[in-house]
Amino acid sequence: MLVAVLLIRAMTAQDHEVRVEPMDVAVSVDGAAERLAQAIREPTISPWYPEDDVEPFVRLREFLEESFPRVHEVAERRLVNDLTLHYVIEGDPGSSHVVFLAHMDVVPVEETTLSEWTHPPFDGVVADGFVWGRGTLDNKQNVMAIMEAAEQWLEEGARPEHTLHFVFGHDEEVGGTRGAKVVADEMKANGLEVVAVFDEGLVIADGLVPGVDEPVGLVGITEKGYLTVEIVARGDGGHASMPPEGLAVVRLSEAMQRLRDHPMPAALDGPTEMMLERTAPRMNFGYRVLFRNLWLFRPVVLGQMTAQPSTNAVVRTTAAPTMLRASPRENVLPQQAVGTVNFRIHPRDSIDGVLRYLEELLPEEYYQVEPIGEMRAEPSPLARLEGPGYEALERAVTQVYPGLLLAPNMLVGAADARHFTGLTSDVYRFQPIPMTSRDLERIHGTDERIAVEHYEALIRYYAVLLRQW
Ligand SMILES: [Zn+2]
User: What residue numbers bound the domain in which 318 lies?
Assistant: First the structure.
């Protein structure tokens, strides 16, 4: 009987139906790869004020002006803290707003890895069917693809009904607080009605979803929250020549051990469960038996997921100890020892929840917990898998990759999108670029590159996406 139920459930998995109509758009991609390569040649490494070189950002801005004259004629362009670009294309009077995010800044390349690059990271080489260099996947490809699509669309004389915002941050990799966040705060202060936000995020996962052989478009509908705390362990006073029982450093290490032994609870729910529901119909039979019968196999699946860092991160709030400090001298007992711990908060938890968990874990008698740093964020609300934002995305993806399976998922990292979640919950973090696990390593790693064919598809995606508004 049990076996029959398991098999019947596995066999009756039904595909989610795509209801959108396709939309054919003629898009020219002539010279687009070369223009992306040109953008890569500006080493726009996220600046730490005030001493850093911001000239590459200025040159990239001038390059955008030259390359996309029509956008610069029609849109109003604002500069935020001199470097972030905020383009506004006015829609009909009283219209609501749609936001497209991307970022111009890139992470630096470690000196020691320079020789491992097939083409130097800032040379902007087009070769063997790829555009090579730092920023081709994170995230100049989105900046340039949005501009390519918008330029052609506006050139046709079209104008949007909704007011469109292109926000190209200059400090996403270091928190976005001087760029995208300033724009989001201003939009909130002005009470703008925002329908949807589109940002970078997850990708078309090739061979990354268990049991699914075909590529899956993973749409980030939420991102984890972010909190850093200092755990201060107090020690008994004394002399290093006669160390007492209660040492601050030992208490701090006990705290770290406790964090590891008693992590915040894991569960298979929210976006992860939704992803499994959507992909189950396309899984091979063995996996389908498992994932279509979570009522029985949930503990087994969860056990597997918590055993791997990458899947553990999607089922629970994680704690990463990153810094330690205590005595300034080798022969002086510290009165206190301080450990810094970085939390990534699952959507089912909250900043308060993390602080309460620490309170229970670490007795007040010996420990004090202090949130630190200007970067602090609750987990984002879940974007809907219906409504105009999602339908526009679905139509645009389907146009470029017909029949592609789409499934919601969660970002475990942070992107500029989180600054906008107070304006609408319909924030979609997705770039339809096919990637294998090897490709994912190239982001912030060595030999970052994008296939010219995939980049051209990205331009077509934005061309259809823009036309929905
Ligand atoms: Zn990025």
Answer: 225-377
Of 117, 171, 364, residue with least CA distance to 255: 364
**How far is ligand 1, taken at its centre, from the CA of residue 103, in Å?**
7
Last residue of a domain, one of 322, 342, 377: 377
137 and 197 housed in the same domain: yes
Q: In this structure, are residues 170 and 57 in contact, taking their beta carbons and an 8 Å threshold?
A: yes
d(CA 444, ligand 1 centre) in Å: 9
Give the residue numbers marked as catalytic: 105, 172
* Distance (Å, whole) CA 195 – CA 298: 36
The stretch 265-288 carries a mean pLDDT of: 92
What is the CA 234 to chain-centroid distance, rounded? 37
Same domain, 212 and 234: no
Q: How close is the Cα of 293 to the center of ligand 1, in Å? A: 36
The reply to whether 144 and 264 lie within a common domain is no
How far, in Å, is the centroid of ligand 1 from the Cα of 140?
9
- The model carries a pTM of 0.91
7 within domain boundaries: no
**What is the rounded end-to-end Cα distance, in angstroms, of the chain?**
52
pLDDT in tens, 322-378: 999 999 999 999 999 999 999 999 999 999 999 999 999 999 999 999 999 888 899
